[in-house]
Amino acid sequence: MRRGTAVIIVTLVLGIASMFNVSAQIESTPYVEGEWAKYEFLMDYEDEVLTGEVEVKVTGETQIFGYDVFVVRYKGEGVYTGIYSGNWKMDIDYFQRASDHATMKVEGSLTLHITMAGEKHVVESKREVYYTPPLDLNDYPIEMGETWNASARESGTSTLLVDGVVDSVENIDENVVYTVECIREVTVTVPAGTFQGWELKATRDDGSYKIHVLSQEVNAVVLDEDFESDGRKSGSMELKSYGIGDEEGIPFWMWLLVVTMVVAVVLIIGISMAGRRTRKKEEDDLSTIFDHEEEPPPWK
User: Fold this and answer.
1) Residues 6+ apart with CB under 8 A from 20
2) C-alpha–C-alpha distance, residues 47 and 70, integer Å
3) Per residue of the chain (300 residues), what is the pLDDT tens digit?
4) How far, rounded to the nearest angstrom, does the alpha carbon of residue 77 sit from its chain's CA centroid?
5) Can you tell me the distance from the alpha carbon of 1 to that of 18, in angstroms, rounded to the nearest whole number?
6) 254 vs 191: CA distance, rounded Å
7) How many Å is the maximal CA-CA distance in the chain?
8) Is 39 within 8 Å of 220 (Cβ atoms)?
9) What's the CA gap between 115 and 173, in Å, rounded?
10) CA 159 to mean position of chain CA atoms
11) What is the pTM of this model?
């Protein structure tokens, strides 16, 4: 899927699963407030690279449109290298319906602190989107070899700010389409250890796809890898640790195919829009890339 001139979006698909035996079905399991998991994070698009750590945590409950929903927070930070260099920080909330874990809303931001032409600047991408109907990538109970489809209408806004001043606002209104397959049993090694698990593949409507492994041993998504339609690897998340509250190593009812598109949507769109816009402005006049006094924002 592409959004205007944005690049192919890396999808980080995470959801909740229950404990099960190797031959059992994957059943839906309620969230538990305080559950968390930490991942080593990598995203690579055309030599624009983000590395660091992302923590996923169930932070509380609320209501949207009369439905009970859980709030799942993604917080991350790390190093950004590419055309420019600097650091990145992510803070994104997912609102997931309690009854089936379908994603109803996503809001949050990615902030880049970069150095360009010897000067430091802040580029922030904010995003708020709703899914109609709620995006339900689950097909509980999930069985080995099963294939299913999921789709929803994604609508909302994406705002880009440069040094605290609004640079652009994008209205989002498009379909999200996935085909998901539970493929096989595998053994993988990640920072948290070596695990057996089920491998699932989620294919987007543009041919790009992601592979992730749900472990039967710790009940967590232990490995998540993203690929472009030509098979080039463009991102990954590898489990480092997991637990509940301050405890570590407790069986964690981890996410399976419920939150889709958003973490990397924010990351890639923020980087792509900022990179493309600053590159264009740099070619026109490097000295006025961040001079917003010459041309006031469109709302003034």
Assistant:
1) 26, 27, 216, 219
2) 36
3) 223 222 222 222 222 222 222 334 566 566 778 888 899 999 987 778 999 999 989 899 999 989 999 999 999 999 998 888 899 999 999 999 888 788 999 999 999 999 888 899 999 999 999 999 998 876 767 788 899 898 999 999 999 999 999 999 999 999 999 998 989 889 999 999 999 888 989 999 899 999 988 876 776 689 999 999 999 999 999 999 988 877 665 443 444 433 334 444 444 445 454 555 555 455 444 444 444 444 444 343
4) 13
5) 30
6) 17
7) 65
8) no
9) 33
10) 17
11) 0.73
Gap between the Cα atoms of 5 and 268, Å rounded: 11
Residue with tokens 């839906």: 28
Answer for the pair 241, 252: CB distance below 8 angstroms, yes or no. Answer: no
Report how far residue 93's alpha carbon sits from residue 255's, in angstroms, rounded to the nearest whole number: 14
How many other C-beta atoms lie within 10 A of the C-beta of residue 228? 17
Rounded Cα gap, residues 181 and 148, in angstroms: 7
136, 114 Cβ separation under 8 angstroms = no
Spatial separation of the C-alpha atoms in residues 45 and 37, rounded to whole Å: 25
Rounded Cα distance between 43 and 236, Å, is 7
| Rounded CA separation 25/219 (Å) | 13
What is d(CA 297, CA 276) in angstroms, rounded to the nearest whole number? 19
Cβ burial, residue 167 (10 Å; 0-12/13-18/19+): buried
